[in-house]
Amino acid sequence: MSTYVREVAKRMFAKEFRNSDLSFREGDDVYSPQYLLTPTGARVNRLFIVGTLIEKENIGNEAEYWRGRVTDPTGTFTIYAGQYQPEAAQLLSECETPAFVAVAGKPSVYETPDGDTITSIRPESISIVDGNTRDMWVVDTAIQTINRLHNLDGSDSYVVRAKEHYNTDKGSYSSIVLDALKSLKEQI
Amino acid sequence: MEDIAKGIQTQFKDMGIEVPLEEIEERLDKLVNKFKVPTNEARKNTVNVLLKQYNVDKNEFFNQSKPATMSNIADVKADQWVNVDIKVVQLWDNSNSSISQVGLVGDSTGRIKFIKWARDNLPDVEEGKSYRFSNVVVNEWNGKLELTLNRTSSVEPLATDIDAGSTSAGSPEECQVSDLNQENMWANLKAKVVQLWDNSNEAISQVGILGDESGTIKFIKWSRDDLPDVEEGRSYLFSNVVVNEWNGKYEVTLNRTSSIEPLEEDIDTSFQPQGSAEDCLLSELRQENMWANIEAKVVQLWDNSNDAISQVGILGDKTGTIKFIKWSRDDLPDVEEGQVYRFNNIVVNEWNGNYEVILNRTTTIEPLSEEIEVGANSFQGAMIDIQDGSGLIKRCPECNRALTKGACMEHGKVDGNYDLRIKAVLDNGETVQDVLLNREITEKLTGITLEEAINLAADALDQTVVVSKMREDLVGKYYCVEGSLADRYLIAKSIEPLSTVDMEKVDELIADLEVA
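The joint structure predicted for all components is written out below.
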């Protein structure tokens, strides 16, 4: 590839992100980008989420290392920011909870000694937003997830791989989306 | 809400701690109503906050678990620990290596899904046999309950046979394609295989379109069901097939109990996806399944990892732009970015309120020598970054280039003139668009004038405070930008923050999903 192409920030709900555990490198050198393949076939090198920061804690020893939990209508994203994410770490150290936040960042997958996998986000940017932006993200993410579900019967090689790995149940993901959209109607 | 608060209060009371109900309710209310946190997460968070506040050990708190009780399938409730006597009704195909077995179990009162995880090393169960599952958890997943076996569970074969009800399905009726309009309906269908699609999914044996004189419908045949293959153009009797619905469209799914018999007769498929193509401007392509001829410039070609797609990108003419897709199977010549073409016989497709141009087997592509001026472009998306070189900058007085570290690439160290601009990255989840905002638009969007920006920088003795403030105010929100494309930048003529949810769109999406 001749020109550098910036990776698109994918949208997905916390439940789908949490259910993801298949990561791979595209290409074989150390600089090849790393991707997370989700159950609905999103190939994720970057993601964008908006939700409520409900918990933050500095879990570092000497250097600050912040862990935050961000909820959406379906569950919780975990974000980690340390010395290599100075702006994100600073915002986490200064902000109050709860607060609406928008986070763009890289997915990261950790395997526990038990064989469980835990997904989290390393933020590139994090900012305080309002409730309307959060609702717009829910609609945005619903549409993008529906699009992926619609393509789930297709022959795209990543989709096929995702379905083989996760045995993706289309119905359960469409009801996740449905519940998320319905939650917008329940608000006052 | 009050119930949840009381529940939490009781849990703490069991530990000998008295928490005022109002305190719990206030936290819950703030999380749920003001900050839109789902109730279960709000409950967890409230408990965590109180644990910290009252200095209670987490493990001690959560270990007050109750012993499992014997239960019927019909009586189980979410989050319960139960023992059940069941028969394994069905084991499902499972390619997820972390799952050991998954399927359906039942007793005389009902049926429920169960999952057994590989990590828990429990013995395997067999279809049709009866077992006692002890110490299993009832989980709720998408409004449906399921039994999850865990490390502490046990699986013991039973000598007695558990009655798990009958497995009969409705008896199928002879149907036409147009009758297949109900989810989970069983049918027998005489139809012709109109099209077989390319399919690289190993789980699917064949997929395509069936038709009769009343219409057409998608069908899927799964590999696991070991059914004979069908041929394009031949007619068959499909017995015992099920109708599924997806995104408002019905499809026929063949299953283990289906049968396929070739027919001598040729089923008439009188519907034809035809329409005569007329010359159109891109702004006129506003109708699903419309055929048209267009003259347009390839404005952008996108990266594409999908083997089935040969090229995908944006076409433009004086009326605007539209997405196009060229499929690999159609063997059409490649197009180049920046070149103008005449496309005859394209089809318009609608997806989520956006129209797109689909090239097909019958499409022709001819390069044209004329140039086309592409009309205003717009882009909607979230601003996920503001790049360095934004905010308060200095330009070379000679050539107007932005200075880096006080120097012009052409003219060296110069005393530059201040300017304001933003190089923003907008992202709609499918594409990234770099957007350039000039001083006037930046001032309007941020409410910071050039004078104020200079003062801010002077007060802080740091020019970058301006871009930091802009990042803080703008990044993470949604915008609609209009402007013209130059290279990789969309030069903004206007930018509008988007801050209200289109509730009609939400209703539409909900309605679409509910029929599915």
